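Lab notebook: predicted structure, single chain.

Context: the supervisor wants predicted structures on file for every construct in the current expression panel, including those that have not yet been purified. This is the next one on the list. No modifications to the sequence; it matches the entry in the shared construct table.
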Amino acid sequence: MTAVDERGVAEFFEGFEPPDGLKVELLRGEIVMMASPDLLHNLNVLLTERQIPLDRWYPLQTQDIDIVDEASEPVPDLVVVARDALPASGRLMPCSLITMVVEVVSKTSVQRDYDVKRSIYAAGNVPAYLIVDPIMAQCVLLTRPKGEGEHADYQRQQITKFGAPLPLEELGLELDTSQFGTFPNARPHRYP
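Prediction complete. Output recorded below exactly as produced.
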């Protein structure tokens, strides 16, 4: 897809009104629509959000992100921003203000969460990307972003099984994963 095409898609996306009950993201010039998340998904987001101290951070749900030099406007399950970095308003949160994004894997989002969004968030230089995976009962913490565009990636990857504590150095806390739920009878995947 050419840069002109991506700009056109981005302009279209700006005014697009999705049908009720659908989550919509722009990922590298592609409009991706998903059904509303599963209850287990929402509970894992809630259990993560509740552990982030509001005296220092704002954990925000359904916040669109502006990734510089990308035809992408992802909507992570959770965006963590320092309280003093939060802008007064706006639909798009500049990626330069974000400390961490969280994606909870669903049965249909595995490839997007582990592959596409990994390079998008790294290209946006988001310091930490946490993948909570109820299919594999693990968290994958990605840090130290490097590179540009589709070649961007995180230089450090830490896998923590549900039940073990997960240090989140970027936030200065340890995440308790013992209450995170898993999808029953889910087919394992090959990621990360």
